[in-house]
Write a structure and sequence with these properties.
CATH architecture of the largest domain: Sandwich
Number of strands: 10
CATH class of the largest domain: Mainly Beta
CATH topology of the largest domain: Immunoglobulin-like
Strand order of the largest sheet: 1-10-9-5-6
Radius of gyration: 27 Å
Low-confidence stretches: none
Number of helices: 3
Keywords: Membrane, Transmembrane, Transmembrane helix
Largest sheet: 5 strands, mixed
Mean pLDDT: 89
Helix content: 25-40%
Shape: elongated
Distance between the termini: 88 Å
Order of helices and strands: HEEEEHEEEHEEE
């Protein structure tokens, strides 16, 4: 009789062990997700993850304003020796019609970047020997704090120093905190 009771207890114990193991398959991922939810949310909010392609010459509403990519141009005439060998300075130009004038919030973390086919990214930089921008030309950050009003048109340029072998394949992208994880990827005009 005691052997029969022991067999029933062992069978019951094995059944509960199997159920517990199956429960772990669901509980561990749910636990990890709940623990890392905040990190995943921050990752999504601060990274450009989902591209929105913009055709050449097209105007796209983004960050409360209408953006049009004017193109990339190489800068010529910088004195020899001012730039690292094998590099070329490039200017990216946009024309923006201000929609919502709350640019300090909408354009927070505004990032205009250049990307090549391999996925490498270049951020705006100070380029030695680069001529000063013409009056009326701003950067993304300076426009955000300029007090621009609805309906104003602004010219935005950013300077980059990139390897000369990828200069012709670069694509401009635009990302802002208010629109992430979506970002704009512009075709060349």
């Amino acid at each position: 009789m005691s052997v029969l009771i022991e067999d029933k207890q062992n069978a019951l114990e094995r059944r509960w062990r199997k159920r517990s193991l199956w429960a772990l398959l669901f509980l561990v991922p749910i636990s990890l997700l709940s623990i890392s939810y905040r990190d995943i949310n921050e990752l999504i909010r601060y990274r450009d993850m989902l591209p929105v392609d913009v055709a050449a010459g097209e105007t796209k509403h983004y960050g409360g304003s209408d953006w049009q990519f004017q193109g990339l141009r190489k800068v010529e005439g910088i004195r020899p020796g001012r730039l690292p060998p094998g590099s070329v300075p490039i200017i990216a130009r946009f024309v923006v019609e201000i929609g919502d004038p709350d640019l300090q919030n909408l354009w927070l973390m505004c990032a205009i970047k250049l990307t090549d086919r391999a996925g490498r990214t270049w951020y705006p930089s100070s380029v030695p020997g680069m001529p000063s921008p013409q009056p009326g030309i701003e950067t993304c950050s300076s426009t955000a704090f300029s007090g621009a009003q609805k309906g104003e048109r602004r010219v935005i340029e950013e300077n980059y120093l990139v390897p000369s072998d990828v200069a012709d394949e670069l694509v401009a992208t635009l990302g802002m905190h208010s629109e992430r994880p979506f970002y704009l990827r512009f075709a060349k005009p």
